[in-house]
Amino acid sequence: MLMPVEQNYETYSAADFLTDDAFVTHQLDPTRASAQFWETWLIQYPHRRDVYQQAVDLVEAIRLGLDTYAQTYLPEETVRRLWLRIQETNAREAETAVRTRRSGWMRWAAAAAVVLTLGGGYWWKSATKPVTPYDRQVTALSESLSETVNTSRKLQLIRLPDNSEVWLAPDSRLTYPADFGRKNRVVYLSGEATFSVTKDTDKPFFVHANDVVTRVIGTRFTVRAFFREKRVKVQVQSGQVSVYRNGPASSAERPKGVMLLPNQQVIFNNETAQFDKMLVDTPAIVITPYVRKKTPSFVYNETPISQVLRDIKEAYGIDIHYNKEALENCQLNSTMTNETFKQKLTIVCATIGATYEIIDGQVVINGGSCQ
Amino acid sequence: MNEQELWQAFQEGDENAYTRLYQLHVQAMYRYGMSLVAVSEAFVLDCVHDVFTELWAKRARLTTPDNIRHYLLRALKNRIMHLLERKEHPRRPLEEVDYDALWAEPNDLEILEELEAATTRQQRIQRLIEQLPPRQQEALKLRFVENMNYNQIGEIMHVNEQSAKNLVFRAVEKLRSWIITLFLTFFTFF
């Protein structure tokens, strides 16, 4: 604390007060001690009260005149982009330093050249890069964050504080608050990642990706949200997730989302703002770690079709709709252990003279009969 | 954690502390940098970038400053001046001293014209301050917005403490005389 020491304030003009650090600092940032000092001084020298007040008014007027300057403000996106650029340079410097550690003084020249050329190029790139929803969301977070950027060419495993696992694809980034898991579980994704989420019914797990939120309790699923692709894809391998548009949580017009079951996926198109629900291209047999159930062998000998379809439905977790009465007498003689989901359906349909289609992530079998 | 502790954590390589220092001071560095070279935001951002990357590279060798904002503003100004003064740089300005010496003090009529368009008290004072020589304006900003003391202002502006006080003193006297002679006569200023 800057306290006035033996200053002869009694002789001060208003302008003199403004060149006194103790006076100005008290005007800008008063403390209890400084307030006490100046109150005492004013009582001691009441005839200088006018001059003191003029000085106070002058400080106030100058600060008013400098208000435009004081309000000069760099937008948050720019602050964040500049920070990314600083980090890039630091990372590159560290790399250059390691690579050229043994090459003596030359390394300084080399490092400087790298910074200048790459630095210039990167600035241009970052200045013209659009601000993505990810940038916006992460910048808006006030807590301290942990961000992982996968700049390698391989999947990168991230273990979250709640023991959930994230396999982050190349060119992707994942951010979560430092206090992740304490109140809730929220992560922000740009790019692609597969999540294996530890079950916790009290704290649902949220993935924010572009404008889409995926909410789960405990499951395994993949989110793909590269900003450049203008769409978000969510695929479920096990469990159950809900996907909806990011919006005000309280509003009654909360955008409708979709519920996904295993082997279903949804594609959210940024431009039409539509959710398109479908089966994944090659559905896989669902392995649920919590439910120990034997995977069927898919070996059938005069087995009722209803049994076959139930096996397929349970193994892949995909609903199959068909006319039970019409297919009541149908049976199957076939071994389909190595066939894919769609091949199995094709065999079944060929046997009973039916066709199938996939509507809204479910299978519908049309026609077919057995006498 | 106070700023000094934050600084020491940063020196030991704590990236969170480094990030926090950036968040705490980037706005002040930006506005101060822009007040020195208003022509190019990209140039000022480049200099902020250079200051922070250099800090990181040299972190182990730095001492802990008494006032971190002062330290950062001084580093920024040094960086800006260094780049501007490089001979090959097309934006090379006149020497600072020359610049102020060439500053033609506006006469009362010019001041009046300047104020005619201003509609609020804030605009009037702002326009008056803009009539002051650049170094006086800079000293006002450092003292009354950034809350640097005169010793620190002197260091940033490469003059001694007394000269820093003189810059503000002259600015304040000039503002007062303009206000008194011009406006109490013609209309109520405040």
From TrEMBL, chain A:
Gene3D superfamilies in alphabetical order: 2.60.120.1440, 3.55.50.30
Domain spans labelled Protein FecR C-terminal: 298-365
One MF annotation (Gene Ontology) recorded for this entry: sigma factor antagonist activity
PANTHER family hit by this protein: PERIPLASMIC SIGNAL SENSOR AND SIGMA FACTOR ACTIVATOR FECR-RELATED, PROTEIN FECR
UniProt-recorded name of the protein: Iron dicitrate transport regulator FecR
Source species, domain of life: Bacteria
InterPro entries according to UniProt: FecR, FecR_C, Ferrdict_sens_TM
Source organism (scientific name): Arsenicibacter rosenii
Ranges for domain FecR protein: 150-241
TrEMBL record, chain B:
CDD domains attached to this UniProt entry: Sigma70_r4
Keyword Transcription in record: yes
Name used for this protein in its record: RNA polymerase subunit sigma-24
Gene3D superfamilies found in the cross-reference section: 1.10.1740.10, Winged helix-like DNA-binding domain superfamily/Winged helix DNA-binding domain (1.10.10.10)
Keyword entries, A-Z: Sigma factor, Transcription, Transcription regulation
One BP term from GO: DNA-templated transcription initiation
Any one GO MF annotation of this record: DNA binding
Superkingdom: Bacteria
One Pfam family per UniProt: Sigma70_r4_2
Positions of the RNA polymerase sigma factor 70 region 4 type domain: 123-175
